[in-house]
Write a structure and sequence with these properties.
Layout lengths: L1 E7 L3 E3 L4 E3 L4 E3 L3 H7 L7 H7 L3 E7 L5 H21 L13 E6 L2 E6 L5 H5 L5 E3 L1 H13 L10 H12 L3 H4 L13 H15 L11 H13 L6 H19 L10 H27 L5 H4 L25 H9 E4 L2 E4 L1 H18 L2
Parallel strand pairs: 2-8
Antiparallel strand pairs: 1-5, 1-6, 3-4, 4-5, 6-7, 9-10
Amino acid sequence: MTIETFQHMPALVLNETEEFQLVDGSLIIPSYDLICKLDPYYNIDEGRFQKSRPVFYYSIVDCDNSEKDFWISSFETTVKDLHLALSIEPGTHLLPTPTQSISYIRVDSKTIIKGGAFQRDWMLYGNVWPAEFDLNALKKANCIFDYLADFHSIKTFEPLKKAIDVLNETANVEFAYKGIGYDEYCLDYKFGFVRIVQLLESILFADITKRFDLGITDSFGLYWSLLLEPDINMVPNTAIELSTYYRLRSKLIHGESHLDFDSEVNRNKYLKCRFLFAHTIKILMILCKEKFSCFDKKYSTIDYLPWSDVKYKERDDIGKIMLNPLRRFLDKMLEDDGGKYKINEELFNEFHQFIQQKWNKIFS
């Protein structure tokens, strides 16, 4: 039997092409006639459809009848991987999860229609805030999509799983859409910004213990900079810049309403935060998948890195947070230097060289 699958990708817009071949399947702009054949009992307005130019992920496979459920399930997993790849490369787009829209699964001559919360609405109206991808952006996203194939351990590293959940959550309309206007300014990054910073706080630095007389705001900037900044000499300056995101988050949630949180300056800060968050997710993906094995013997990191087999300790009470292996690893980068912090230069440089090598390999 032949199984053809079509999943609408809400808000995605293809520039410079009508179709883009992926490592698995392709992105297409289907014809009006094709959608009518797949969905014959719904009166699809041709004018709205042609104006929307909806993009679908399309795949086709020939298989035995006994394999039908397997391939349909595999398609759904592949769509999640594709959406993640498009969301983190370049990382600034607010792409709603495809499962909220419509999909068609054609098995020989029979079509199965699966509608999410918005059914066909996004197919006809959903591109009022476009996430435009040119060929270069699509090629980069395709490399990430390929890297995610057979990435079964993605759910076993809790910080990465939580980060992806927040990335998806903050792109949905209840967080992202103001409902005013028909351009990029109808999108609201503000509330997603708060969720993102709170998530980063929970996975990056110590919750209770203060080190080196640093408060929460400065600790946030320092620990995030250890992960993102490859130049050890720039870490202090980067830490100061990144700490401003935590400071703005605090002002938002504590109701300092006299501040202009919708100013162009802050809007750009929300946008850049999402970009940096996406980059953080890419680093977590590399750490989770590649095992960072070059450090295991030298630094005995098997005891605290995220891919180790060390079991999390059960919570003693509701206020105790489970051990975070990523955070413990970042702790190892900082050494006491007379009450001030000093970065373990050898560990820092090897870590970032490792990340860069793996990153270059993804796009090679």
